[in-house]
Amino acid sequence: KPEYSILLLGGDGIGPEVTAEAAAVLDQLSASPNARATFKFVPRAFGGCSIDEHGVSVTEETLEQGKKCDAILMGAVGGPKWDGKRRGFEGPEGATLRLREVTDVYANIRPTEYFPQGKSPLREELVRGTKYIVLRENCGGAFYGPKVEEPDYASDLWSYKRSEIERIARMAATLALSPAVPVKKVISCDKANVLASSRIWRRIVEETITKEFPDVELVHQLADSATTLMMTKPSMFNGVIVADNTFGDILSDLAAVIPGTLGVLPSGCLADLPAPAWTPGLKPVKGFFEPVHGSAPDIAGQGIANPIGAILSAALMLRYSFGLFEEAKAIEDAVNLTLESGLRTKDMGGSSSTKELGSAIRENLKKLL
Ligand code: NAD
Ligand code: IPM
Ligand code: MN
Question: Fewer CB within 10 Å, N- or C-terminus of the chain?
Answer without folding.
Answer: N
